[in-house]
């Protein structure tokens, strides 16, 4: 910067500082005459919805996932599903050898039938007081015990058929016909069923933002599917009440709306979570805000009697999004929708209250927020 230009800039700054405490009339009276008008790009103040967002990393998950395991030990006799095919709730997937249990059920059924007949005869005798109360109670107990034993064996027999817990897609299987399976938790799952009717996404939110996250909070997901980037919308349905001590963040889950088939569980995705939305507020480009020791200001281009001059208007700032910032005028009468403001470079241009301006529309390549 040359010496004369530096002196000129310093003088302009001192003039602005000295006039910031004056009234608007005093500023106009004391404003130095400018030989030429300062060319500036202007844009109109608009009303729009402003949102505060944060960008996070998430993982896509199936709506429901279940590992199919045997509940009783036995040898596999039949496998009734194909890997990767769609299955329905209640569909039999695997049959375990049940020959021993079938015989036990038949034996228990015979014992139960005998206990049932004994109970019937005992009740008839008890009505005529031809049997003691103790003997009657013993017969009733034998009947209840045989009935429970039969019910237990029937339950165990039903567990020899492994069924799909819900509609979904069958995964790969880890067994073949003839394999012996047990109910041990350490045993590998026979297969996995995934419900892909809708997809979830799981991500971590830092603790300082958690007070703004709640069920039904919207978000946008960016994921690469089939070589192309897809943009999906979603909604939060779960916010954990616990904050992880290590990451100082909390788990949040949401449902994705109408995801394409190319989006698969386990995929990486970028999540843009909406924390707060302000409706129909005044907004200007961030470059239009001049930060001074007295607070932020915007510079209006005011046209009167064919001359356009600069008017410095104090504002308070709100949400920022995509190069725009929400402004709230300290004096609402001085600022309204459609007012023309200097769009950029307010900290570098030599401007002062009452300075003459040569306003020009902001160039399209520098516009933001569209």
Tell me about this structure.
- The chain is an alpha+beta fold.
- The protein contains four helices and 19 strands.
- The strands form three sheets. It has a six-stranded antiparallel β-barrel.
- The chain is elongated.
- 22% of the residues are buried.
- Mean pLDDT is 86; it is low at 1-35.
Strand and helix layout:
Elements: H1 3-19, H2 24-30, E1 38-44, E2 46-68, E3 74-79, E4 86-87, E5 92-96, H3 99-127, H4 133-158, E6 161-163, E7 168-170, E8 180-181, E9 191-206, E10 218-225, E11 228-239, E12 249-256, E13 268-285, E14 289-292, E15 295-304, E16 307-321, E17 324-329, E18 340-342, E19 357-361
Parallel strand pairs: 1-19
Antiparallel strand pairs: 1-18, 2-9, 2-13, 3-5, 3-8, 4-7, 5-6, 7-9, 9-12, 10-11, 10-13, 11-12, 13-17, 14-15, 15-16, 16-17
Helix pairs in contact: 3-4
CATH architecture group name of the largest domain? Beta Barrel
Within the largest sheet, what's the order of strands? 2-9-12-11-10-13
Number of domains: 3
SSE string: HHEEEEEHHEEEEEEEEEEEEEE
Write the CATH fold name of the largest domain.
Answer: conserved putative lor/sdh protein from methanococcus maripaludis s2 fold
Computed CA radius of gyration, to the nearest angstrom: 39 Å
Q: Please give the count of helices.
A: 4
User: Which secondary-structure class do the elements indicate?
Assistant: alpha+beta
Shape: elongated
How far do the termini sit from each other?
36 Å
β-strand percent reads 35-45%
- CATH top-level class of the largest domain: Mainly Beta
Are there runs of 5+ residues with pLDDT below 50, and where? Answer: 1-35
> Level of helix content?
10-25%
Sheet of most strands? 6 strands, antiparallel, barrel
Q: Estimate the mean pLDDT confidence.
A: 86
Task: Let me know the number of strands.
Answer: 19
């Amino acid at each position: 910067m040359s010496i004369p230009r530096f002196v000129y800039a310093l003088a302009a700054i001192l003039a602005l500082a000295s006039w910031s405490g004056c009234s608007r009339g005093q500023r106009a009276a004391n404003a130095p005459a400018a030989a030429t008008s300062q060319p500036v790009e202007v844009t109109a103040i608009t009303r729009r919805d402003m949102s505060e967002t944060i960008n996070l990393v998430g993982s896509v998950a199936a709506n429901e996932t279940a590992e199919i395991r045997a509940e009783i030990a036995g040898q596999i006799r039949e496998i009734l599903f194909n890997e990767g095919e769609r299955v329905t709730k209640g569909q039999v997937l695997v049959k375990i050898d049940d020959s021993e249990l079938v015989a036990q059920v038949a034996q228990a059924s015979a014992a139960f039938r005998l206990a049932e007949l004994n109970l019937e005869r005992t009740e008839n005798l008890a009505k005529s007081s031809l049997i003691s109360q103790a003997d009657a109670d013993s017969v009733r107990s034998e009947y209840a015990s045989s009935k429970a034993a039969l019910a237990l064996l029937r339950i165990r027999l039903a567990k020899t058929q492994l069924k799909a817990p819900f509609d979904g897609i069958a995964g790969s299987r880890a067994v073949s016909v003839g394999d012996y399976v047990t109910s041990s938790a350490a045993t590998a799952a026979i297969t996995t069923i995934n419900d892909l009717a809708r997809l979830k996404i799981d991500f971590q939110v830092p603790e300082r933002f958690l007070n703004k996250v709640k069920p039904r909070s919207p978000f946008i997901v960016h994921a690469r599917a089939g070589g192309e980037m897809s943009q999906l919308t979603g909604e939060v349905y779960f916010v954990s009440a616990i904050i992880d001590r290590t990451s100082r963040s909390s788990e949040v889950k949401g449902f994705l709306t109408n995801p394409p088939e190319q989006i698969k569980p386990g995929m990486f995705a970028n999540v843009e979570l909406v924390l707060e939305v302000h409706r129909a507020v005044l907004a200007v480009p961030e470059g239009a805000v001049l930060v001074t020791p007295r607070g932020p200001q915007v510079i209006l281009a005011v046209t009167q009697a064919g001359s356009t001059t600069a008017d410095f208007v104090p504002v308070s700032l709100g949400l920022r999004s995509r190069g725009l910032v929400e402004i709230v005028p300290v004096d609402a009468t001085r600022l309204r929708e459609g007012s023309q403001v200097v769009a950029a470079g307010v900290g570098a241009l030599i401007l002062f209250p009452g300075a003459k301006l040569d306003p020009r529309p902001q160039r399209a390549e520098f516009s933001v927020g569209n």
